[in-house]
Amino acid sequence: MIRIVLVDDQELVRAGLRALLTHDDDLVVVGEAADGAAGVEVVRRLRPDVVLMDVRMPGVDGVAATARITAEVPGVRVVVLTTFDTDEHLFDALRAGASGFLLKDIRPGPLREAVRTVAAGEALLAPAVTRRVIAAAAVHRPGPDTRLDRLTEREREVLAEVATGRSNDEVAAVLFLSPATVRTYVSRLLAKLGARDRAGLVVLAYETGLVSR
């Protein structure tokens, strides 16, 4: 059973998500909150598997709440929700530890599959949306970074492809590698770079300048 907490300041949005997510027996909504501060408290108390977090809320917004949850409640996966696929706050949410993002107009079936994907430890990084998010945040690119110096050329190539949101199978096809080899490279990248998950690799690739517009 995958336990879910909903954090959104609109009651109708929470009600709609709850109705969609309780359609299947393996998903259950165990808690809700109308703002980020309350969301953090609910997550601390209930320790769900997945949190669906609105990125724009009054008071403590979704980015700040995500940072607190990922720092204070290990193992909980946060997915940010937005109505804008170019919202630069989505990149801030990834930097804060979110495992990906979803648009609020996602269809019911893909929504439920997305929750299962995140609960299984994967990231939600659709290539088209990921590229737009990174482009929207590009004006905030930091200065030179040396974290990639420890990587081999092939590891850099794999990281660059992962950072576009491609799956292991897609990276394998682009780089003419087997999916198993790509999985090995991704595991190595996570260990070498100290990233939480694939979403963390996207953030790092952006911050180091490996990925650009």
From TrEMBL:
<feature type="domain" description="Response regulatory">
    <location>
        <begin position="3"/>
        <end position="119"/>
    </location>
</feature>
<dbReference type="InterPro" id="IPR000792">
    <property type="entry name" value="Tscrpt_reg_LuxR_C"/>
</dbReference>
<feature type="domain" description="HTH luxR-type">
    <location>
        <begin position="144"/>
        <end position="209"/>
    </location>
</feature>
<keyword id="KW-0597">Phosphoprotein</keyword>
<dbReference type="Pfam" id="PF00196">
    <property type="entry name" value="GerE"/>
</dbReference>
<dbReference type="InterPro" id="IPR011006">
    <property type="entry name" value="CheY-like_superfamily"/>
</dbReference>
<keyword id="KW-0238">DNA-binding</keyword>
<dbReference type="InterPro" id="IPR001789">
    <property type="entry name" value="Sig_transdc_resp-reg_receiver"/>
</dbReference>
<protein>
    <submittedName>
        <fullName>Response regulator transcription factor</fullName>
    </submittedName>
</protein>
<keyword id="KW-0805">Transcription regulation</keyword>
<dbReference type="InterPro" id="IPR058245">
    <property type="entry name" value="NreC/VraR/RcsB-like_REC"/>
</dbReference>
<dbReference type="InterPro" id="IPR016032">
    <property type="entry name" value="Sig_transdc_resp-reg_C-effctor"/>
</dbReference>
<dbReference type="InterPro" id="IPR039420">
    <property type="entry name" value="WalR-like"/>
</dbReference>
<keyword id="KW-0804">Transcription</keyword>
<feature type="modified residue" description="4-aspartylphosphate">
    <location>
        <position position="54"/>
    </location>
</feature>
<dbReference type="Pfam" id="PF00072">
    <property type="entry name" value="Response_reg"/>
</dbReference>
